[in-house]
């Protein structure tokens, strides 16, 4: 809390009075809990800033036997997809008086487990984990903790607690459907070793399912490269791919990998899209600046972060939320694919 001119602490009652709302509404708005319109929430937050209000984290901890920390686990900082998701979260948590503790696991289940165990020792208010595939040891560690947990970026019918993400299998099917509608017949995929990114594996399965249905017996040629740099994965994987096959369209793990693939196509004198089509995933800003612009799938990254943060805050304060929230993706047709001549 802050002190005013008369050395009086500014509390929720002061904010509620100034904003013309009830104390409960002021509390819900500042903690990010649903039930308050976005317009009214911003008005109340503005009043709180003008009055210099600061939540009393010590009082909260004593009253709830939990800290004001929220742990956020992501695989890597090399992919700005996760930074966009986090941006939506951190602002929401900060406005509600919580501090974010962010850690990267580099897709290592042991690193994720070690981080979760460390966070639990700090009595976190909540945890956010990336993906829905976790080690049995981690799931065992979370049993009985009563800590609200949200898994992001992926969805499952059996989340640890709740999840907010997209359906990666369906996203892969949507990409394949578009390619098939353009007349592509010889698909390929470039990514990382199987199991390292389960979400990419799900998208590949979606692609394979559609081509198998449309063209029975048609396999998807696959090149997998192990490297932390996505550009290297795309470049090296594409070079390897053309040594074993001659695809007319290549689906990439994500836009960054596709950018690397485009440099390899240029090196091989493979014109895009005349000789080969390129399909990314995520729809990063750079995908629409480069020439040719990238055909890709747009993911709702910031909305995912905001939705996850608001749901977690609601769970922290005892409110019910949807157990599984599936957000929509969008096809973005760029210049790296085109209608094929029959």
Entry keywords:
342 residues; 434 Repressor (Amino-terminal Domain); Rossmann fold; 3 domains; 14 strands
Compact overview of the structure:
By secondary structure, this protein is of the alpha/beta class. It has helices spanning 12-19, 23-31, 38-51, 57-64, 80-95, 109-121, 136-142, 168-181, 198-214, 230-244, 255-267, 301-316, and strands at 2-3, 9-10, 69-74, 99-104, 126-130, 149-154, 162-166, 187-191, 221-224, 249-252, 277-279, 296-298, 324-326, 330-332. It is elongated and about 70 Å long.
Would you give an account of this structure?
With 342 residues, the chain is α/β, with parallel strands linked by helices. It folds into three domains: 2-54, 434 Repressor (Amino-terminal Domain) (Orthogonal Bundle), CATH 1.10.260; 65-165 and 301-327, Rossmann fold (3-Layer(aba) Sandwich); 168-299, Rossmann fold. The chain is 44% helix and 17% strand. The strands form four sheets. The protein has a six-stranded parallel β-sheet with strand order 4-3-5-6-7-13, with helices on both faces. A four-stranded parallel β-sheet has the order 9-8-10-11. Helix 9 (198-214) links the parallel strand 8 and strand 9 (221-224). The longest helix is centred in the middle third of the chain and has 17 residues, at 198-214. The chain is elongated.
Structural class by sheet pairing and helices? alpha/beta
Reading the helices and strands in chain order gives EEHHHHEHEHEHEEHEHEHEHEEHEE
Name of the CATH class of the largest domain: Alpha Beta
Distance between termini?
Answer: 70 Å
Q: What name goes with the CATH superfamily of the largest domain? A: Response regulator
Beta strands, count: 14
């Amino acid at each position: 809390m802050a002190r005013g001119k008369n050395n009086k602490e500014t509390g929720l009652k002061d904010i509620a009075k100034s904003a013309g709302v009830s104390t409960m509404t002021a509390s819900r708005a500042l903690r990010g809990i649903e039930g308050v319109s976005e317009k009214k929430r911003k008005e109340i937050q503005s009043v709180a800033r003008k009055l210099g209000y600061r939540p009393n984290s010590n009082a909260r901890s004593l009253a709830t036997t939990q800290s004001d920390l929220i742990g956020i686990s992501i695989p890597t900082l090399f992919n700005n997809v996760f930074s966009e998701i986090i941006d939506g979260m951190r602002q929401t948590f900060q406005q509600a008086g919580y501090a974010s503790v962010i850690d990267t696991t580099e897709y290592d289940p042991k690193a994720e487990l070690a981080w979760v165990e460390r966070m639990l020792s700090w009595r976190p208010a909540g945890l956010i984990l990336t993906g829905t595939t976790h080690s049995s040891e981690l799931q065992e560690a979370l049993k009985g903790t009563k800590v609200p947990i949200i898994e992001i970026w992926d969805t499952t019918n059996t989340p640890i607690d709740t999840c907010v993400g997209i359906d990666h299998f369906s996203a892969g099917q949507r990409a394949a459907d578009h390619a098939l509608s353009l007349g592509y017949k010889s698909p390929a995929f470039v990514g990382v070793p199987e199991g390292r990114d389960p979400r990419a594996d799900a998208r590949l399965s979606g692609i394979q399912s559609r081509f198998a249905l449309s063209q029975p017996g048609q396999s998807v040629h696959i090149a997998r490269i192990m490297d932390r740099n996505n550009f290297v994965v795309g470049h090296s994987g594409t070079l390897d791919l053309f040594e074993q096959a001659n695809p007319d369209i290549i689906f990439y793990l994500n836009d960054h990998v596709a950018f690397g693939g485009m440099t390899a196509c240029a090196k091989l004198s493979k014109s895009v899209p005349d000789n080969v089509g390129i399909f990314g995933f995520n729809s990063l800003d750079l995908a629409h600046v480069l020439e040719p612009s990238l055909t890709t799938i747009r993911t709702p990254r910031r909305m995912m972060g905001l939705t996850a943060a608001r749901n977690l805050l609601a769970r922290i304060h005892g409110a019910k939320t949807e157990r599984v929230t599936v957000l929509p993706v969008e096809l973005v047709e760029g210049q790296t694919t085109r209608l094929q001549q029959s």
